[in-house]
Write a structure and sequence with these properties.
alpha/beta, Rossmann fold, eight-stranded mixed sheet, about 40% helix, about 15% strand, binds thiamine diphosphate, binds iron/sulfur cluster
């Protein structure tokens, strides 16, 4: 398999539970790199802490496994010092939107050229199934035995409102679509967010009686629909997939370089 060149095989077997969606995201992401013809040396992958964040351990790029919620802060530093590199940031929904929520909205607002992958399993997987900002009203979690009473973020709408210039949603069931969208997100010059609905059968699935991984992926198939489809008009509860935002705005590192060039010239007479 051509993608093997991107893997650090010495770190396998991986730590993910059987049926975890995060391995499928790793697969889809590597297919995107392969299609874009990116070499291992051109890519930096930065993550925080979580089952999703473990992805950086398994790929043979330049990788940083940092602090929970702080991946985008580290990634911002990397991108600003070496803007020619492709910087990809895989995060869990907790990592990105709870402890990391502030970094997330400000990275989006700056439109810095990073690709944020939010692996949304609607739970804190690594620490035992606590609820996250994406769990959703009424769902069960270790820390919500009677059901969550706060409302979940809509990651797509949050990203768009914060200023991200590329925003998409896909799922682990739709692997080809996922890989294609990740590729487009990487090519986009600006802050890109790809929400990937991913199954955690061990915690979200078990607590909410959603069945095994196959059953959870069947739900992704049945409960989602491409943006603007007729099905959505008939069934407003369907979750839309696809690219919601794709627009050009000045990118942060380019603007910063222009300012530096101006400063080097000194004040205008
Ligand atoms: C500063 C800090 N706070 C809390 C933790 C504990 N912790 C580690 S991973 C995690 C949440 C993981 O959930 P998520 O980011 O959604 O990723 P998943 O494991 O579900 O992929 C938490 C709370 C930590 N490592 N560091
Ligand atoms: S706890 Fe959940 S998110 Fe973590 S590896 Fe297991 S299935 Fe995946």
């Amino acid at each position: 398999m051509a993608m093997k060149k991107y893997l650090r095989e010495r770190f396998f077997p991986h730590i993910w539970c059987p049926g975890c969606g995060h391995g499928t995201v790793l697969n889809g992401m590597l297919r995107a790199f392969e299609k874009l013809g990116l070499s291992r040396n051109e890519v930096v992958m930065v993550s925080g802490i979580g089952c999703s964040a473990r992805i950086t351990g398994y790929v043979d790029f330049h990788t940083l496994h940092t602090l929970h919620g702080r991946a985008l802060a580290f990634a911002t530093g990397v991108k600003m010092s070496l803007p020619g590199l492709t910087v990809v940031v895989p995060m869990g929904d907790g990592d990105a939107l709870a402890i990391g929520g502030n970094h997330f909205i400000h990275a989006a607002r700056r439109n810095i050229d990073l690709t944020a992958l939010v692996l949304n399993n609607r739970i804190y997987g690594m620490t035992g199934g606590q609820y996250s900002p994406a769990t959703g009203y009424g769902c069960l979690a270790t820390t919500a035995p009677f059901g969550v009473i706060d409302h979940g973020f809509d990651i797509v709408r949050l990203s768009e409102a914060a200023g991200a210039t590329f925003v998409a949603r896909t799922t682990t069931y739709h692997v080809q679509e996922m890989s294609d969208i990740i590729g487009q997100a990487i090519l986009h010059e600006g802050f890109s967010v790809v929400e990937i609905m991913s199954q955690c059968p061990t915690y979200f699935g078990r607590k909410n009686r959603q069945g095994d991984a196959v059953e959870m992926m069947r739900r992704f198939k049945e409960n989602t629909t491409p943006i603007g489809s007729r099905d959505k008009a008939d069934n407003p509860d369907l979750i839309e997939r696809g690219i919601f935002v794709q627009k050009e705005l000045p990118e942060y590192c380019s603007e910063y370089q222009k300012m530096m060039d101006q400063a080097m010239k000194g004040p205008s007479p």
